[in-house]
Amino acid sequence: MIALYRRAAGLLDQIAPRALPLAARIVFAGVLLFYFWGSAVTKLGPGVPGLWTPSDGAYIQVLPKVVESVGYDFSQLGLLHRLIVLAGTWAELILPALIVLGLLTRLAALGMIGFVTVQSLTDIWGHGVAGADLGQWFDRASDALILDQRAFWMLLFMILVMHGGGWLSLDRVLTRRKDDRRF
Question: Where in the cell does this protein reside (predicted)?
Fold first, then answer.
């Protein structure tokens, strides 16, 4: 029985570096891709120029305390504010697409770790998320918006940072070498 267990574990050890990243990308696509894209779309202004002109709601989502401090007079916001909002919006569009395609996967996943960290801090300090929505680890509840859900997101991204896009990715196609099957 122990020998059978060891053989099975050995097989899984061989398969995991190739299969786990693909599984992480599939789960990301199924669970979070449209969450991030949907959020990004709410930040875009109308039409094609909206890619460079964020909506008023974008400023409220990304810089809530700043918008509040100017009395919701968006004309008082400067170029820096616009660039911050645009960078976040484009990150929400581009980084998830790169992850799903498996292109620059490690870099995209690292970018998503940074994005989700900033998103979480904005939710906590900018929007005042607290209590049950913030959550607490090692309690019986597993559905808190920040500490519980986003911990799983971060784990997913860490798998991709450490293992890359897996065997079915554009990263592998672009970096393929005869003797290298580790990607």
Answer: Cell membrane
